[in-house]
Amino acid sequence: MKTPVSTYRLQIRQGFTLFDAAETVPYLHSLGVDWVYLSPVLTAEQGSDHGYDVTDPSAVDPERGGPEGLAAVSKAARAAGMGVLIDIVPNHVGVATPAQNPWWWSLLKDGRKSRYAEAFDVDWDLAGGRIRLPILGSDDDLDQLEIKDGELRYYDHRFPLADGSYTEGDSPRDVHARQHYELMGWRRADNELNYRRFFAVNTLAGVRVEIPAVFDEAHEEVVRWFREGLADGLRIDHPDGLADPEGYLKRLREATGGAYLLIEKILEPGEQLPASFECEGTTGYDALADVDRVLVDPRGQEPLDRLDASLRGGEPADYEDMIRGTKRRITDGILHSEILRLARLVPGDAGFPADATADAIAEIIAAFPVYRTYLPEGAEVLKEACELAARRRPELDQAIQALQPLLLDTDLEVARRFQQTSGMVMAKGVEDTAFFRYNRLGTLTEVGADPTEFSVEPDEFHARMARRQAELPLSMTTLSTHDTKRSEDTRARISVISEVAGEWERALNRLRELAPLPDGPLSALLWQAIAGAWPASRERLQYYALKAAREAGNSTNWTDPDPAFEEKLAAAVDAAFDNRAVRAEVESLVELLDPHGASNSLAAKLVQLTMPGVPDVYQGTEFWDRSLTDPDNRRPFSFDDRRAALEQLDAGDLPPSFTDERTKLLVTSRALRLRRNRPQLFTGYRPVNATGPAAGHLLAFDRGTAAAPGALTLATRLPYGLEQSGGWRDTAVDLVIAMKDELTGAGFGPGTVKIADIFRTFPVALLVPQTEGKS
Prior knowledge:
Residues 48-67 are annotated as: Disordered. The chain is built from 27 helices and 26 strands.
């Protein structure tokens, strides 16, 4: 199996096609990247800027460069000695525009007789053999239907007509009644939908790749990439939505000839990938959480908890209770259709009314500590969730006891489908709701993280890295993705708040007085985001604020927005630009956070690029990137600027200050080049301890062994506290051999070396044995 040393993620879209990607390959190679990592490239909804709404899996998207574009990327990568990793989406397809999706169009036209009927996960019996499409503004809008060009039309929406279902003069309503689909009001989707989706997105329909014929047709083009040598590995989107992730990965491994596979899997604290999964690891959110937390000051927890409680009227946030509530909000709201479908699958002799069965299923899912089980693996998790659900709701105890053996029996459809559903509820209830409500420190509410874990001490970090080296050395590590709530540099700046909790509280109080917002926790989230991303455009911050508020769902929401609250929210954001006092407060806060945030950014980047695993660099983040949630993190950027800056660095023109964004490029390029060119320096993992008064501010590890020292990473942690306590002073490390800093070229050791000397230029260093050849 060919495996990557590192990857660089490119977002392929109409504005940056595969041909553009091919042209960037020389720069990426110069940067030190080993594999090019492409976002989904199969044909997607026209105009999609992410590609996760695939409409035709049989071809590379013409808008993204088509098969010629993919061939161009592969050819450029091969010429540079690089590999190609491609993101694929097996769980669902895009159905927003039925005419663009031949599978969906066939299903709507022919219903159960369609050759693609088995490809989609439809509960035909619920709607009398029809597929319910929540398209209409309301059911009264059936009067707006018309027949045009042999199709049923609803404004710009087009639908096929079943053969023989229309004759001249028939009313559109009558014709609609004869179709294999039923157009209905969009609000009915919560309770009456009868096809599986991606989470609660009606325009993404689930696909049953567990069926061999469906797998084969859905992956024919993907398999071609490997047969023709165009790709070397795959990133698998949302495997938790599949009926049989283990079987899928085994079949995919066989179909691709044993290729490198990564899965987009969220691991909760203590959770491990099933040993039976044929993949090299995850896409790195677990690593992201560890890196973030080792740079958070544990002393900030108590004052930030106290502040958070004051913003909630004096009561501290109970995270466990919060996520139970947000999950039930999802099971009883936007995913209630899925819960009701599970209830319909429970055998009638279970002896409980349908509403009690649905309530009990929802309560069990709300008690789940992980995204899903992979039975028989995870059976104990399910049992414990049932026990917790019964304790929370004693009146449901009998129903839960009756359900437990059914949910453990993988021969039953209810058990298989339950596993597909629990992850949806976790994602929507936790990541997309609770993470916008639990706001004491924004760094902690990131995809794949447990926000109740406030910080990680270096010793624990080292223990986790040693396990990663031993168990998942080929798993990806990351700091930013297309899905992160905040980019790495935004989080790095926000993390400084853990060191300056008092100053943050005073700034927040002044901002709330100057720009009042009747939602205390949301105000903390908003001003942290603004401080983390500043300077940012008004448009960007307005979009983020509205999305965050609606996701949180406390003061407004997506389906029934509160105009009065949203006006106050918009006014608060505007105040950051239009009110001198507010702007001055924001800029003062940013001035306090920024240099220490820059130090954190460099530390996080160097640690992520040199720790065990396969490091990924998200596009553009070799410069400062202070993005917020999507689509803000997919904004255009300039490769030309980065290419020119890299040439300057290579010519010896080093940044004058570590706050210069070229420093991040320096760290990124030197670490990536070292990993690619001198892999012998990254064969092990050993913690390195400092001595002296500021030893706790150093995070250091050696990627070699006791017998053969390797690359030595040295990074500053808690930089504000370091500065306040008098700096490094006599803090030192012992170097057993002479070493050279890849960032500055300075030499050190052997013997005891002061950290202040190593960090004379930058707050990080990457030391290599001087006896080794050049990098």
